[in-house]
Structure prediction request, 367 residues.
Amino acid sequence: MTNTNVSSRPQPRPGILDIAAYVPGKSGAKGAKVHKLSSNESPLGASPLAVEAYRQAADKLELYPDGSATVLRQAIASRYGLKPENIVCGAGSDELLQLLAHAYLGPGDEAIYSQYGFLVYPIAIQSNGATARIAPEKDLVADVDAILNLVTSRTRMVFLANPNNPTGTYLPFSEVKRLHAGLPKSVLFVLDAAYAEYVRRNDYESGIELVSTFENVVMTRTFSKIHGLAALRLGWAYCPAHVADVLNRIRGPFNISAPAIAAGTAAIGDQHFVEKAVAHNDVWLDWLTKELTALGLKVTPSVGNFLLLHFPLETQRNAASADTYLQEHGFVLRRMDSYGLPQTLRLSIGSEEANRELVSCLRTFLA
Prediction:
């Protein structure tokens, strides 16, 4: 007879079961053809050079990868003018965010993130026994003063997604610098720049300058978005030397696979493909914003490769009804209930076909 007494089995640390699990965007929908626009993936796929490098790596799957990802770090350093020893690679930027929290947070500590920030932040904070403090935003934009008002003697880390997911908004570099200047030197400022390559604003900076200048700033980046390598789970962090040393002590010894190293190295070197992806996004981000606004939807201005769409409260045309209708017609968008934005859907910029057909479908739905 099975013993159902919970106390008789291993128990997780206090607080673990209070964490809301991260729920990714859906992958399927009804209908013969599906346009997945829920996960901010690249509509152009990956660089052909990266795909070929991945295929060639398949000839040596019996060998362990280079545990230091030396070639990849050198390629990243060359692209951005950085020191390779200040770069740490991870299985997506998600792993690096988790490693940072694991290294610098514990019970009794506090970490701050913005109200509509990436949901991995509270998971990383709470899973290490620390307390998450949430700074309210203004008009879906991170509020520097609200963040600084939450800083206490217990604050150990501040997470800022810039640009932010899921809103697509950003803080100009002047505000990022003001935020950093207001933090104690003992607080680690983590700049999550997953969508940096898409931003075309003169007042934006991804964080490289701050990391190069100060001892308490880390910038994380990903290959999942502009480079189209989401399936490989590949990211990198640019850190002060002492932070890089800490991360290298606690990460897995072979946390990046050989095919990922090969594909990432090829991708970072293919700037022609990156420019093509940026150009596609520039055209269709603007087009979708105008077309969807013309349909009567409120669209949050975005600098990323996605848009946050606000639906009316009325039952027949609200976000939940729109999501159901779109799925029935082969379009998968992302519900934002878990972010506290129940009347919104997040739309990834897709192919020309997907973008045009989506607008047509929403026009019918809203009629």
Summary: The two ends are 59 Å apart (CA to CA). Residues 271-294 form the longest helix (24 residues). The first strand starts at residue 35 and ends at 36.
